[in-house]
Amino acid sequence: MEDVNVDLFLQPKDLADALGITVQGVHKLLKEHHIESTMANPRQRRIYPASVRQVAQLKGLPIPSGVVVVHLVKGGVGKTTLIHGLAARASAYGCRTLMIDLDQQANLSTSFGVYSRPKKDPSLLDVYVGHMNGKKVKIQDTVVKVTDFLHIIPANLTLANLDVSIVQGTENIGNLFESMFKPIRKDYDLIFIDCPPSLSRVTSAAHCYADKILLPVNTDRFSLDGLELTLEHLSLLQKKFRAKAELHVVINKFDARQKLGFEVINELASEYRDMLCEAYITVSKQIDNSIAANECLWNPQQGKNAALEDFNNLLMEVFNLKTWKDQMAGRRKSVGSSSHSRKREVVAHG
User: Fold this and answer.
1) Domain for residue 156, yes or no?
2) How many domains does the chain have?
3) Do residues 47 and 11 lie in contact, with contact meaning Cβ atoms separated by under 8 Å?
4) Comparing C-alpha atoms, which of 214, 218, 211 is closest to residue 283?
5) Higher pLDDT, residue 35 or 43
6) CA pseudo-torsion sign 4, 109, 64, 219
């Protein structure tokens, strides 16, 4: 398959907010350390992932890592949109990111303009059975580059047979994906897995492989039922395979105009307080239109959108990127204290 070309970057204000410094401070930091940025037009400077990663490494800031599964047994809750927004944004922050589309409908794949053809482009089913059209298939053969920092293993209709093949096999579900993705795991900081809305061998394998599981819910009763069923299934997996992923319930597509929404939020806060994320994603027609048109949510033409700020806030919360600001603040405080001490010492000697 051919790679695609999506333009993902941070603006100086984005990086300034993440670091807790001014935009002028960002420009100074880049200039002092000869870190590259690009002028897209006279009014917009772009900082690409390699440069953001360089800043993080220079300042000793942690790069988020781990395997993140997005799943709920109920369909239509916005799993694909959630994983699209978070994975793309994480890559803009310099995380080497892989998305794995496990849904045969391939909505995540097509949302980035990636179209995998059954029996022509290798899929995870071909990796599992080991061959396609008589040729050996490795996991590396399925990866498509979206940007240098964002890759995807796309889905196609052949995934409809993956669960059947796993049922007929002898592999342990608990370590199936760890074994399958081991050859490429070291190439990525973050792996996002988009699951179909079902409870199957495939989704169970994903759950066992996960470090974090995001459970998106809408503010309706059907979502609550889906959440309860999914959590029951996860509890069984924890007992059988000792799966220990962090669980995060995410309110997605929230509409403040609906009275029922606030009732559901109160119920979620009461029942799942320890799992419920503070950040939530507001409903956005613009976001829905972008996904439907197979356009990246973070396209520069999107303009200002409150839902994109929600995605950014959720990324900061789930992956603790707030520590960047905390560490930078601590470093500035330390430098300030040292300078103050030296000043007192000079005065004393004087």
Assistant:
1) yes
2) 1
3) yes
4) 218
5) 35
6) positive
What does 69-125 look like in DSSP terms, one character per residue? EE--SSSSS-HHHHHHHHHHHHHHTT--EEEEE--TT-HHHHHTT--PPTTTS--HH
Question: Would residue 153 count as lying in a domain?
Answer: yes
Is 227 domain-assigned? yes
**Residue 28 pLDDT class (50, 70, 90 cuts):** very high
Q: Using CA atoms, how far apart are residues 142 and 153, in angstroms rounded to an integer?
A: 6
- Looking at the domain assignment, is residue 275 inside a domain? yes
pLDDT in tens, 212-241: 999 999 988 899 999 999 999 999 999 999
How many Cβ atoms sit within 10 Å of the Cβ of residue 102?
A: 25
Cβ 279 vs Cβ 251: under 8 Å: no
Which pLDDT band holds residue 255 (cuts at 50, 70, 90)?
confident
Instruction: Find out whether 217 and 249 touch, Cβ atoms under 8 Å.
Output: yes
Q: Would you state the pLDDT for residue 221?
A: 86
- Confidence (pLDDT) at 347: 40
H helix intervals, the chain: 12-19, 23-32, 49-58, 79-92, 107-111, 124-129, 162-168, 176-185, 201-209, 221-241, 259-271, 285-292, 306-318, 322-349
Q: Rounded to an integer, what distance in angstroms lies between the CA atom of residue 318 and that of residue 279?
A: 9
Residue 335's pLDDT is 59
Q: Which are the contacts of 240, defined by CB distance < 8 A and separation ≥ 6?
A: 174
pLDDT tens-digit series, residues 86-100? 999 999 999 999 999
Question: Apex CA 79: angle with CA 73 and CA 81, to 5°?
Answer: 165
Label residues 37-50 b or e (16+ Cβ within 10 Å = b): beeeeeeebbbbbe
Q: What is the CATH number of the domain that holds 298?
A: 3.40.50.300
Q: Which residue has the tokens 């240098």?
A: 148
Range of the domain at 85: 63-319
Distance of CA 75 to the CA centre of its chain: 19
3-state DSSP call for residue 280?
coil
Query: 245 CB contacts (<8 Å, ≥6 apart)?
Result: 69, 207, 210, 211, 212, 213, 234
- Mean pLDDT, the chain, rounded, equals 90
pLDDT score of 349:
39
